[in-house]
Amino acid sequence: MMTTTTTTLLQLLRTLFRASIIALALPACAAEGGREGGGDNLPDRGITGWERSASDTTKPFVLTTEGMPLGGASAVVVAGQVLVYGHRVSAESTFELFRAEGDATGASFAAPVPLGVAGHDPSVLRVDGRYWLAYVDAANAIALATSSDGRTFTALATTGIAADRRGPSLVIEGDRMRLYLSTGTTLVHTEAVRSDAPSFGPEVEVLAPGIGCVDPSGVAEACWDEDAIVDAEVRRATTPTGGVVYRMFYAAHAGGDSDIGFAASYDGVTFERFPYNPVLTGTFDERSPTSVIAAGIYVLLWDESRSTTVGGLVRATHVPTAPSDRW
Amino acid sequence: MSRRATHLAPRLATHLATHLAARLATALVWAPLLLASAPVQANPLDYFGFGARGPGMGNAQVALADDFSANYYNPAGLATRDALQLQLGYTYVDLALALNGYDLGVDGVRGFQGGLVVPGDVWGHRLAVSLGLYMPDERITRLRALPEAQPRFALYDNHPQRIVLTTSVAFELLVDTLYVGLGLTYLSDTKGQLDVTGVVDLRDAGGTTLQTAVDVDFVAARYPSAGIVWKPNDNLRIGLAYREEFDLTLDIGVVVNGDIVLNGASDSPTTLVPNARLEVASKNSNLFAPRQLTLGVAWSKMQEDQAHPCWTLTAELGWYQWSRFKTPTAFLTTSLDAGTLPLSIPENPVPLSPDFSDILVPRLGGEVFLYNSENFDLQARAGIYWEPTPAPSQRGDTNFVDGDKFGFGLGLTLGFKDLGALLARPFYLDLAATFVTMPERSHTKLDPADPTGSYVSSGSFFGFATSLRLDFGGEEAP
User: Fold this and answer.
1) ∠ CA A57-A58-A63 to the nearest 5 degrees?
2) From A20, A263, A324, residue closest to B455, measured CB to CB
């Protein structure tokens, strides 16, 4: 056997060369690779990585009214268009709600149109073709209203909502209405059966300042939102696994500054803070965040003030390669 | 803490970080280049098989492999043939692995494969030695340690990017009945250290002078494999193969020694801390393959002349000890001795355990002799397997993604026996196509504010393999 090996070695090498041409003919037709190994299209929740539409040291407003500071924005996407509801200070120094129609990604808005409703800090939703509005009315009470066209709202009679609440955020799921309210320092939740005269139940604290903060490795750390949690907006989103997650962007105060953070919950009541909070900071105070997905882009809007007469709506975007949470 | 010290602390940290980063970058450039010269046996074969016959039968080969692929499947099979054998081929697998339906762009696997089987005879018993090689044609190795939270398909990340070199020896214990084989593979663990010495000026980078030395060792590690083939008669073959686990680590350290000074560029610098020392060590498991034990049975219906089987069916069950899988996340340890300067570095968290589980992998395969003439042979084969994932659903902070795999293989052997002047010897061309599907799997995070969030993993592979086999001497066999 070994003798055979020796005598055929040269023959083997000669035929090997010929045979390899045949063997390699097939793979030569194969597609070539070249990718860099598994880092493309990672899941993106649209929580961080915000890019401001303009520098925050100038006047970066996508919506403003000279001499009439506006704020308290709540955005909704309808028919591929970003609509913003907010408040502004009228000539009579009272708050009034407005609606402004923007482009597909909220990069620019037409002039705000008053709704004829006195109040501030609106939260707007569109469910089954109907608009729902929660806001702080002229008597500083939380009020609800509904509309079929988003322009003319009819107030709903509500009961059970505590006095002196502010910054409402409304969530509707099926026949349930959830309201998230700020006590001035803490965020609470109350809910009611959806109706024309909802009666809200007892409040439950969902997020308190200065408690329960952990760093990315899970170690307890000082909270960035240690003074007060205000101006929260909660969105009921769907995860890629088909579950429900309640996403919350909120403004919080610490050390005299107001920044924007993120928290989330699976049940709408027990919220966990994002480990990399705050998710948006800047030269000026950021307040009243509202987020939408517009034309496949995560859009975050909030209001900033430069003075008692200059302020407006500021925009940042995050373009995901693989968006995950959707609402 | 004094006011002066309070101001010095961040400056020192900045300087140290700057110099450290530059030296570390140097080390990281050198380390992969050096490591690339060390051939390692690794995972491409675990995932995609070896040769072209195995993939065409769902890699159910522990009782059947008798060509160079037996180096991987069962070295004992090498002694069951008489012919000197040479094979050369190519394998290509395209991976489509996705999270939430978006392809992550995990690198495919493609490269040359081949081997040599040299039979012999000792006291009337067959003896065979063999060499098998898989050589990727894109990169011969890749090392990396991704952040723990970054989603990645943990078993396919950089594991297929390896040279595979296997060597085996097999012996016929009982003539035409019992065969044993042993494979031995030399691997290389990597240990490297970057030594930086000199003077660090707290205020003026121009006053900092550092010298660098790189020292990287490749420590040999040996990993055996072994197998048995028992042929109680012409129809039945039973194979048992064992492969030891191996775990290649990437161990890189940086040591900075020197004085911390002020006015380092002047003729008379002020020494704040003599012989300050910063040690940084990074260690991670860069490549792990589990201990494996596979038992297979094959039954063949022989032709009347007993020359070739009309058909063969085989079944096998493999045990993979994935529970010993170590985290691929780098564990960083740091130590700083800055004398009286009030500096400290917080401890880094210990990487979380991946909590993988042992798995059993059943495989079924069959092949049939379709045509046999003086000039041409044709065989067809097929196989399936189910490989449950060893990875748990990723509900916590880690994102070591994997899923169950259902694999299918189809293959052909074309035998050309008389090509005249083109090829003096018969040759056999093996072709295989494989398809593996990884059904959707949900990973729902316990923390609703998890940065990655919940996701769904899924995937599929499609590949093919070719192998050209030349037999010299001995009986001609398909």
Assistant:
1) 120
2) A324
Ramachandran area for residue B101 (φ above 0: left; ψ -120 to 50: alpha; else beta): left
Structure tokens that stand for A199 in this block: 């009666």
pLDDT, tens digit, 9 for 90 and up, residues A22-75: 333 333 333 233 345 678 899 999 999 999 987 666 668 899 877 777 889 999
Q: Please give the Cα distance from A281 to A3 (Å, whole number).
A: 81
Distance from B15 to chain A by nearest Cα, in Å? 26
Contact state of B89 with A239 under an 8 Å Cβ cutoff: no
Q: CB A38 to CB B152 under 8 A?
A: yes
pLDDT digit string, tens, across residues A281-326: 888 889 999 999 999 999 999 998 877 777 889 999 999 989 999 9
Distance CA B452, CA B394 (A): 11
Query: Could you say which residues from 200 to 219 on chain A have a Cβ atom under 8 Å away from some Cβ of chain B?
Result: 216-219
Nearest to B104 among A34, A38, A218 (CB): A38
Say if the Cβ atoms of B118 and A276 lie within 8 Å.
no
Does any CB of chain A come closer than 8 Å to the CB of residue B155? Answer: no
Amino acid B406 reads F
Cβ count near B25 (within 10 Å) = 11
* Nearest partner of B90 among B41, B46, B134, judged by Cα: B134
Output the CA–CA distances (angstroms, integers) from residue A323 to A296, A297, A326, in the order listed: 8, 8, 8
Question: Rounded distance, CA B137 to CA B161, Å?
Answer: 9
Q: What is the DSSP string of A89-151?
A: E-TTS-EEEEEEEB-TTSS-BPPPEEEEEEEEEEEEEEETTEEEEEEEETTS-EEEEEESSSS
Phi/psi at B6 (5° precision): -60, -35
Q: Is B78 touching A (CB cutoff 8 A)?
A: no
Residue A43 one-letter amino acid: P
**Residue B159 is which amino acid?**
H
**Tokens representing A66?**
């000279």
Query: Candidates 2.60.120.260, 3.90.220.20, 3.40.50.1240, 2.115.10.20; correct CATH number of A69-318?
Result: 2.115.10.20
> What is the DSSP secondary-structure string of A73-106?
EEEEEETTEEEEEEEEE-TTS-EEEEEEEB-TTS
Query: Among positive and negative, which fits the CA dihedral A133, A136, A139, A141?
Result: positive
Instruction: Name which residue leads in pLDDT, A43 or B341.
Output: A43
The single-letter DSSP state of residue B162 is: B
Closest Cα to residue A56, out of A261, A299, A281? A281
In chain A, domain spans: 69-318
Q: Within an 8 Å CB–CB cutoff, is residue B232 touching chain A?
A: no
Contacting residues of B for A1, CB less than 8 Å apart: 82, 84, 119-121, 473-474
Percent of chain B with pLDDT over 90: 49
Q: Given an 8 Å threshold on Cβ–Cβ distance, is A38 in contact with B97?
A: yes
Could you state, in order of their start, the residue ranges of all structural domains in chain B? 3-472
Question: Is CATH 2.40.160.60 the right assignment for the domain spanning B3-472?
Answer: yes
Which residues is B172 bridged to in the sheet?
Answer: B179
Q: State residue B137's pLDDT score.
A: 81
A5/B103 touch (CB, cutoff 8 Å), yes or no = no
Q: What contacts A258, CB < 8 A, 6 or more positions away?
A: A251, A252, A285, A286, A287
Specify burial of residue B262 (Cβ count, 10 A radius: 0-12, 13-18, 19+). Answer: middle
Residue of B nearest to A38 (CA): B106
Give me the residue label for tokens 């680590």.
B249
Task: State whether ipTM is beyond 0.90.
Answer: no
φ/ψ of residue B237, rounded to 5: -130, 135
Q: Which amino acid is at B255?
A: V
- Two structure tokens written together for B143: 């090392």
Dihedrals phi, psi of A8, to nearest 5 degrees: -100, 5
